[in-house]
Amino acid sequence: MEKIFIVVEVPEGEKVNIGTYYLTGEVDILWNIMKDKLIGPEFTWYKFLSKLRIKFYPIVLQRQKEKEFIELKMSSTMTLMQYASKFTELSRFVPEFISSERLKMRRFEEGLAFYIRNQLAGQPILTYQELYERVAEVE
User: What's the predicted TM-score (pTM) here?
Assistant: First the structure.
């Protein structure tokens, strides 16, 4: 839905109405039970997603994924592509940890193998994409 909202340029105030139209199964049932209590001018798409996460994504699982992300390191048997893929997969569970390009780059670099980090030391790298490309060259 997020991708569609961006492409179609859905205004913030319409995201809940449009997004909930596409709900099915248990989520749709839950929404029909909750909506009268929640709908109002302050009820945003972000708040809607938060409510769903609480119900369908328990705090224990959230913490587990957060811990996995924090502890993610590039092992000696892991390729850059494998590490980057795992980084991307886990980062969606902790958006606050990569809320800026700088934070994302720092976290990605912290998990790289030591020999790669050592090779990058002192190089001015401005974007995540540039960091990825430099790491690919080193690897």
Answer: 0.68
